[in-house]
Amino acid sequence: MKSSDSLPTRGRPRTQDAASRRQVIIESAYRAFVELGFANTSTAEVARRAKVSKRTLYEVFSDKQALFAAVISEHRHLLLDLPRPEDEQCALDESLFRIFRLDVSEEQSLEREAILRLMTRESILFPELSDYLYETRAVSSREMLMDWLQSTASEKNLPLDDAAVYAGMLMDVVFGALMPHRRVADFREKQVIAEHIKRRIQITLRGMGWLPA
Questions:
Q1: Residue 33 and residue 71: Cα distance in Å, rounded?
Q2: Domain range holding 201?
């Protein structure tokens, strides 16, 4: 007779399968939303791409809005790399370069552009969807950046009049430049844009009193 130590652990494979299935659904939905848009993406199409039944999909996500929110939440690391490692030691401007992922590869740059365009496009077309993203905290980039600014100011004894204003200003500086009016296909040009963003961040930090003039 086998000892209790040699008996298989029940429940763990099922949990792993559920997590894997959820991940496959999210990734399939992401590709569908990017390609077709929110309005033209049906749950049936997502289920087909994920190779699951609609019933299985609805066991994981209550509706298409919840699925879209999960997609955005899953990919928000492409926009802001937060929180930062506790033992990170670097200059303040370098920290923000890393937070805003300004030195990513060409593949990562394309992924970030896709999620930015998806969020921007669908928020304009469906304002209620944008509201839902914020209500469910699928989008919390601004709040996370505010937390970083507040903790950094406290730790380094730096001036911080209004974390919300500075967080919004930094995000406008970065994402306003990352979403140009025309599509930039040349990665070298994107790298030039990233260098311009770095200079703008440094100018902003000097205005905040976080870098020497």
A1: 9
A2: 78-208
Tokens of 180: 């140009």
- In SS3 terms, 45-67 reads as HHHHHHCCCHHHHHHHCCCHHHH
Query: Hey, is 97 helix, strand or coil?
Result: helix
Q: Tokens for 195, please give them.
A: 């260098």
Tokens (6 digits) for 153: 């100011």
pTM above 0.85, yes or no: no
Residue 2 lies in a domain: no
- Cα radius of gyration rounded to whole Å, the chain: 21
The answer to whether residue 46 scores a pLDDT higher than 60 is yes
On whether both 112 and 17 belong to a single domain, the answer is no
Helices (H) and strands (E) in the chain, counts: 10, 0
